[in-house]
Amino acid sequence: MRDRRAEIRAAFEKLVVPSYARFDLALERGDGSYVWDVDGRRYLDLAGGIAVCSLGHAHPEIRAALAEQSARLIHVSNLYYNELQARLAKRLVDLIAPGRVFFCNSGAEANEGLFKFARKFGHQGAAVSKRPGQSAERSSSESGRYEIITTFESFHGRTLAGIAATGQEKVKKGFEPAVAGFKHVPFNDLGAMGAAITNATVAILIEPIQGESGITIATPDYLVGLRKLCDEHNLLLLFDEVQAGHFRTGRFQSWQRILEAGAIDPNLLCLPDGVAMAKSLGGGFPVGAFWLREKHADVLSPGTHATTFGGTPLACAVALKILDVIERENLAENSSQ
Fold it and tell me: Which part of the chain is CATH 3.40.640.10?
């Protein structure tokens, strides 16, 4: 009898880079919350593609959106306008706050965009607030602001800058020297964050809910305190919502849910300057994005950042359909229960 699973495993071992420790499963199809392997066994999928399949597997409306849009226009360069990208940008802005959106393909790319945004901001000559013990204010160009403070046990992607930003030593081994410009402090420790700020600091980046080292949730006071620190020192506050965002907590982004639980208006006391998104945004189709606050809309000017595939009509059609289904079926409210 033919052993398809063994054949597939042998092909992987021969032809695929062994960068994953895979389970001994060869999956063939999915439907809703279930997947089937090549031997016909059914499994309840509790991982959802690692927080990706927001509407489950083979959702009929996602299938229809893919088929319909693929018959019209799959890809067009970002040298041209496409209506679906504009519509998706508006939906995301309406769910966060006035600002602009850049579309890419993954969470790692979204975070890379935030890193570049922070570097560009640090080179624009914005004044740095005077700190205790300083004799005078210094401009960002004079102080060379480029450093981003992140937290221990965080995860921000597998690119060289992403692993430098990540607060876990295990992901850095074998890839030294690390990309310069990142330091780490304990999570939920406002005092440690404040003490780490120097003349080189340009931004603070956190996951409001850490998910790679257990589930660790930022407190409302911590989020509000970070916003105050950034305002005092003219720093950017950046949130990585790649994993915990997209209604998984009952609100569009996890920081909104945390502040709601603390009876705090997020747009009044803790609006970030940039937010990275991906995973559930495309429900299995590769889509990433980052949102920038309106007052920073022009930091990334033409020629400073780009992508070949980000924001294609096909990707945007899928992401728009997912938002439609979530809204129509009140799935955010269901997640909050």
Answer: 66-336
- The three-class DSSP label of residue 210 is strand
Amino acid, single-letter form, for residue 142? E
pLDDT tens for each residue of 235-281: 999 999 999 999 999 999 999 999 998 888 877 889 999 999 999 99
Question: How many beta carbons lie within 10 A of that of residue 208, not counting itself?
Answer: 26
Q: Residue 302 is encoded by which pair of tokens?
A: 């033409």
CATH architecture of residue range(s) 66-336: 3-Layer(aba) Sandwich (3.40)
pTM score, whole prediction: 0.92
Six token digits for residue 155: 């995860």
Three-state SS at 183: strand
Task: Please answer whether residues 313 and 85 qualify as being in contact, where contact means their C-beta atoms are separated by less than 8 angstroms.
Answer: yes
From 103, 117, 121, 155, the catalytic residue: 155
Token pair 């509790």 in the structure block, residue? 46
Among candidate residues 253, 205, 210, the one with its CA nearest the CA of residue 229: 205
Q: Residues 176-221: pLDDT tens digits?
A: 999 999 999 999 999 999 999 999 999 999 999 999 878 999 999 9
Query: Whose structure tokens read 């949130």?
Result: 239
- Out of 240, 247, 252, 285, pick the active-site residue: 240
Q: Omega of the bond prior to 177 within 30 degrees of 0, cis?
A: yes
Q: What span, in angstroms and rounded, lies between the C-alpha atoms of 248 and 54?
A: 8
Residue carrying structure tokens 């120097």: 198
Which residue in the block uniquely carries the two structure tokens 């705090």?
Answer: 264
Helix, strand, coil percentages for the chain (3-state, nearest 5)? 40, 20, 45
Of 239, 279, 290, 321, catalytic: 279
> At which residue do the structure tokens 């809309």 appear?
297
Other Cβ atoms closer than 10 A to 273: 24
Is pLDDT at 126 greater than 80 in this prediction? no
For 194, counting Cβ atoms within 10 Å of its Cβ (0-12 exposed, 13-18 middle, 19+ buried), the class is: middle
Whether 240 is a known active-site residue: answer yes
- Cα torsion 25, 31, 32, 35 to 10°: value is -10
Between CA 45 and CA 51 the distance in angstroms is: 11
Please check whether residue 40 is in contact with residue 29, taking contact to mean a CB–CB distance below 8 angstroms: no
